[in-house]
Design a protein that fits this description.
Layout (H helix, E strand, L loop, with lengths): L7 E2 L2 H21 L5 E7 L3 H17 L2 E7 L5 H13 L5 E4 L9 H5 L13 H8 L8 H13 L7 E5 L6 H10 L3 E5 L6 H5 L4 E4 L17 E4 L3 E4 L7 E4 L4 H4 L5 E2 L6 H18 L15
Parallel strand pairs: 1-11, 2-3, 2-4, 5-6, 5-7, 7-8, 8-11
Antiparallel strand pairs: 9-10
Helix pairs in contact: 1-10, 2-10, 6-7, 6-10
Length: 304
């Protein structure tokens, strides 16, 4: 990197386009063979918090030339009815991938319902069989956001092997799988969470820092190592200077301060988000393909 004051911006939109281009020929082949990938998003009740994500998924499917269906169930649906719907989609040969939109109404068991989706159609990569594959190096449908974070690190050019990597946040869909993927690439990995006594003591040692907490400005310039590569997964709405009631999106990292010290960093928005959608589409194509996944993480798309 030429200068710590001129960080490499890890452009998620450009990477998302390159992922789509990488799979374009395969999508065309599947369509010609009568196996057009089809993604079905199941939403229980109307929820404004998930509406933006669903719109992004629909736009992503259109760009990738995939079929997209939003199946909205009544907000008072019983657990049994939601399970029945997911099981029917599991059996539908025309459906390649299934995603349960979150949050679901209070009283419904989120994790248990996600696990109802068959692992070969679990395009979010959250089924125990897919998560467990990370431990056994059986790489199938991986968690989309964790894979997006690793793909952005890959494009930065940083050599992961032997580096100190710190993941802040230990969720099942981002933090933990990101840590496992970094371990697969032979990084030395530390995972911090809300019970970590001194997060900054760890983040200052990180050559590679992945932050996925959901707290605006959590990581400040004094908490990062000069020359580090930083991937900010957080998306937080905060008041904008443009006027009362206006909001803007920021990450978990204080971009203005941290970007002056590091070698590479993701912007928010425009960083991890577009790549996460691309990885969801990638998983849908892989599910439609129905081929055995590779064992070696270095053979995964973008893991070069």
């Amino acid at each position: 990197m030429s200068s710590a004051t001129e960080p490499q911006l890890l452009d998620g939109r450009a990477l998302a386009n390159s992922i789509r281009e990488e799979f374009e020929a395969e999508v065309d082949s599947l369509i010609e063979a009568g196996r057009k990938p089809r993604l079905v998003v199941v939403q229980v009740g109307e929820n404004e918090a998930s509406a933006a994500y669903i719109r992004g998924q629909r736009r992503g499917a259109e760009k990738w030339k995939l079929d997209f269906e939003l199946k909205t169930l009544p907000g008072d649906s019983t657990e049994a009815f939601v399970r029945k719907t997911l099981r029917e989609l599991n059996k539908d040969r025309e459906v390649s991938g299934i995603l349960l939109s979150l949050p679901v109404p209070a009283g419904l068991p989120t994790r248990s319902l996600q696990h109802e989706i068959h692992p070969t159609k679990d395009v979010e990569g959250v089924h125990p069989e897919n998560i467990g594959g990370l431990l056994w190096a059986r790489y199938g449908l991986l968690p989309c956001t964790a894979l997006a974070a690793l793909a952005l690190i890959d494009t930065s050019g940083v050599q992961v092997e032997g580096k100190q990597a710190v993941v802040v946040g230990h969720s099942e869909i981002v933090g933990k799988p990101a840590a496992l993927l970094l371990l697969a690439k032979n990084a030395t990995v530390t995972v911090c969470h809300k019970y970590t006594a001194d997060v900054a003591a760890h983040t200052r040692q990180a050559d590679i820092l992945v932050v996925a907490v959901g707290k605006a400005g959590l990581i400040t310039a004094d908490m990062v190592k000069p020359g580090a590569t930083v991937v900010d997964v957080g998306i937080n709405a905060v008041p904008s200077d443009e006027g009362p009631g206006r909001m803007r999106l920021v990450g978990d990292v204080d971009f203005e301060g941290v970007s002056k010290k590091v070698a590479a960093i993701t912007p928010v928005p425009g960083g991890v988000g577009p790549v996460t959608v691309a990885m969801l589409m990638r998983n849908t194509v892989l599910a439609a393909r129905g081929m055995p996944p590779p064992d070696d993480p270095n053979q995964l798309p973008l893991f070069t």
